[in-house]
Amino acid sequence: xxxxxxxxxxxxxxxxxxxxxxxxxxxxxxxxxxxxxxxxxxxxxxxxxxxxxxxxxxxxxxxxxxxxxxxxxxxxxxxxxxxxxxxxxxxxxxxxxxxxxxxx
Length: 104
Known about the structure:
Elements: H1 3-16, E1 24-28, E2 31-43, E3 54-63, E4 75-78, E5 81-91, E6 94-103
Antiparallel strand pairs: 1-2, 2-3, 3-6, 4-5, 5-6
């Protein structure tokens, strides 16, 4: 592995997913893991949406390998709340999962 990739991986472990810095422990699909949750409420923008409908969206940052990698459309449970996976990307050893909780 290159020096840069080693440095980035070290930052992922020592800073980004460090529970004393950014990460917190959450239960994802029954597994207790260190991760970062970013909760966002967006106005729904699809053909079947109505004015005033909002989507509770959750962006999850978790180390690759700490959980089974979900696929788009899968149901994922985070701290007892169900979400539908909209997208999954891997960025330098971190899974970035975007999931919708519900519409209101």
